[in-house]
Amino acid sequence: MTAPAIRLLGVSKAFAGHRAVSDLSLEVSRGGVFGLLGPNGAGKTTTLRMVMNVFAPDAGSIEVLGGPAHGPVRDRVGYMPEERGLYPRMALEEQLLFFAEAKGTPRALAARRLPAWLERLGLDAKWRSRKLNELSKGMQQKAQFIATVLHDPELLILDEPLAGLDPVAASLMRDVLLDLKRQGKTLVLSSHQMETVERLCDAIALVSRGEKLLDGPVSEVKRRYGRNTLVLAYDGDGAFLGSLPGVAAVSDFGRYVEIRLAEGGDPQGVLHAAVARLRVSRFEIVEPSLHDIFVEQVKCHGEPA
Amino acid sequence: MRLLAIVRREYLERIRSKAFLIGTLLGPVLMAGLMVLPGVLMAKQRGNPLRVAVLDESGELSAIVEEALRSSMAEGQHRFDVRAPAEGVPETVRERLKAQVLDGSLDGYLYLPRGALESSLAEYHGRNVSNVMDLGLMNRAVEDALIGVRLRHSGVGDERARAVMRRLQLKTIRHSESGEREDRGASFFLSLILLMILYTTVAMWGAALMNGVIEEKANRVVEVIVSSVSPTQLFAGKLLGIGAAGLTQFLAWAGFMLGLSLFGGAVATAGGLKLPDLPPLVLVLFVVFFLLGYFLYGAMYAAVGAAVNSHQEAQSLVFPVMMPLLVGVMLFPMVLASPDSALAVFCSFVPLWTPLLMFLRVTTLTPPTWQLLTSIALTAATVVLMNWAAARIYRVGILMYGKRPTLLEIVRWIGRE
Fold first, then answer.
1. pLDDT(B184) > 50
2. Are B410 and B397 within 8 A, CB to CB?
3. Is the pLDDT reported for residue B8 higher than 50?
4. A91/B394 Cα distance (integer angstroms)
5. Does the pLDDT of residue A8 top 80, yes or no?
6. Cβ pair B40, B273 in contact under 8 A
7. A interface test, pick of B11, B13, B213, B221 with most A CB neighbours within 10 Å
8. What is the mean pLDDT of residues B8-35?
9. In angstroms, what separates the C-alpha of B230 from chain A's closest C-alpha?
10. A225-273: pLDDT as tens digits
11. What's chain A's Rg over C-alpha atoms?
12. What is the mean pLDDT of the segment spanning A98-119?
């Protein structure tokens, strides 16, 4: 088997005494979508920047596509940083060709690929000669994405790829990402939007305060947390649900609530109590959402041990 | 290949900007203006021709002297507007002339007393008797007229008289160890203009480089690029790309000046103006010293740009970079006054000043070849060293955000692994 797409071993990085990442080990296998999750300031961006060799780790080793992060593998990786970076006063087409050239792709080849990408992302041909600062924010984001993929990388590293996109654009972007996955590319994305991650990712790692809390394939992570979550939709005042015996937590989603049971909690007991006082329209035992796992884990980790 | 992509991007961005177009076109206009201006000013300074009359008591000279004054010229212009005095008794004519001088309708009158031809005595009466140039001209014209009359009286023919009286034309020629060349007078202005162009362009293109670096950092473009090419490659690409744009502009200007010195002479002379002398070697060195200056100061400007987060922050750090350039410019009167003095030679060998001061010496008198080559080699070595240090500062600085580092911290970056 080929080397993993990314392998981090005991990676640490501190800025001015603040530990941004500590002793982080990770492995991202080839193919599929990998999500790096964590609250703001968890060290996601720092980790991705180290993978991209924007700066080197203080300790530990990083391997990308089987080689060192600063080596020639860079040309096979596409990177979309969290803070978007394009030249504001440069024409769109010129700019995209330039970024592909900087990755060692011949200009002519990039020029042949460009129209298909512009069309795929819905950027009209009339924008090609416009300067970037004449484009809307959403279009700039799409342009940034094209700059990331125009050299046809096998590994894509996307820092918050859907942030700042309207729902239509976000859904388009999701489709494009899934297309790339189908083509056998490896995608690594960071996010704190659990819904995005849940619908896109095959595997995740959850980080908080620079440390890894858990990782693995999404299905496995969920299984680890067991089938201890109930979805309940009802009419009436459900405030009492949280104080029922065996209930650990209730998340209100407005139209329905998610109830997480404590260890040994009985779903049937909860159903009985609910039916007695509410008009129940839906009751389901489900896997926990990543959102719940995320919130719980981060909370546990955040509290002093 | 990648480096080329960066160079190309930088080059095109500059070349396509309006500022570049305006600067390139306006430069020659400004240069031509500055070159022609001194001549125009000198002509203006001389003022209008003097309105004079001749009062002749000898009775035989007035026609000849008036004719001599009418035909005497300076810089291609007649200098005397000769008016006929009123008719009448000498005493009243004299009073009338005095009154005219006082009321300003006449600038002065020339009085030739009885026996002036023998005694060679004459008087000039006027409100202003300190305009040496014109009075010298008058002196010579009248003297020539008198000598001419005397020669004719002694039986010398007109033809011979003219031959005998041919005046001396004194050319001034500057000597230096490496050669000699005719001093055409306007070289002071030319040296000054070329020096100013060098200074402005080095400062301007250096600042353009710095602003480019700051912008890339502020827009976070740098993060994307650094994930593709090394910071050193990016540094080199920017330096070369912007330098190429500067060189393009400079070559356009140098070409214009070459054209002017080759073909403009005839046109200018026809227009009554004098063009300074501009040998091709000076033009070649003009470009060479621009490149040296740009790469020397550009490296420093780029390092400053990498260290700061915004244009505002750059202002205080850019001062130490500008300083040597400014001091170099301020040394010009000393170098121009005596380009071969030990102090001037020394200053022209200081690498930070060589691009300005060695070039200044080249424009006044060509320094010995060994001096020229040694100073260029020294500066080139400094350029290499400076760019090595700047590239190391750049590498650390472009990915550093937050508090502006002090000058000392920046210098320490050079040694950082």
1. no
2. yes
3. yes
4. 26
5. yes
6. yes
7. B221
8. 86
9. 9
10. 777 788 888 888 888 888 888 888 888 888 888 888 887 778 888 888 8
11. 22
12. 93
Mean pLDDT estimate for chain A: 87
**For the segment A132-173, what is each residue's pLDDT rounded down to a tens digit?**
889 988 889 999 999 999 999 999 999 988 888 888 998 999
Rounded to the nearest angstrom, the minimum Cα separation between B364 and chain A is 44
Query: What tokens appear for B87 in the block?
Result: 């008719």
CB atoms B219 and A88 under 8 Å: yes
Query: Which one of A103, A156, A159, A160 would you mutate to disrupt binding with B, by most B Cβ within 10 Å of its Cβ?
Result: A103
Q: What is the mean pLDDT of residues A205-218?
A: 88
pTM: 0.75
Q: Where are the domains of chain A?
A: 6-221, 227-286
Residues on chain B bordering chain A, Cβ-to-Cβ distance under 8 angstroms: 1-2, 5-6, 9, 12-13, 216, 219-229, 399
Residue B381 neighbours by CB distance under 10 Å? 11
Check pLDDT > 70 for residue B42: no
Domain at B48-154, CATH from 3.40.50.12780, 3.10.180.10, 3.30.530.80, 3.40.190.10? 3.40.190.10
Share of chain A above pLDDT 70, in %: 98
Domains A6-221 and A227-286 share a fold: no
Q: Do B220 and A85 touch (CB under 8 A)?
A: yes
Q: What is the pLDDT of residues A270-305, one digit of tens each?
A: 888 888 888 888 888 887 777 778 877 777 776 443
A74 contacts B228? CB cut-off 8 A: yes
Contact at 8 Å (CB) between B241 and B14? yes
For the domain A6-221, what is the CATH code?
Answer: 3.40.50.300
Nearest to A53 among B5, B216, B227 (CB): B227
What CATH number matches the domain at A227-286, 3.40.50, 3.30.300, 1.20.1630, 3.30.70?
3.30.70
Report the residue from B2, B12, B399 with minimal CB separation from A101.
Answer: B2
Q: Where are the domains of chain B?
A: 2-39+184-413, 48-154
Residue contact B399–A88, C-beta within 8 A? no
Give alpha helix (H) positions in B47-131. 62-71, 90-103, 116-119
In A176-205, the residues whose Cβ lies within 8 Å of chain B are none
- Residue B98: Cβ within 10 Å count: 13
Is A102 in contact with B220 (Cβ distance < 8 A)?
A: no
Q: Which residue has 């104080």 as its token pair?
A: A243
- Residue by residue, DSSP assigns B20-63 as HHHHHHHHHHHHHHHHHHHHHHHHHHH-SPEEEEEEESSSSSHH
Q: What percent of chain B has pLDDT over 70?
A: 89
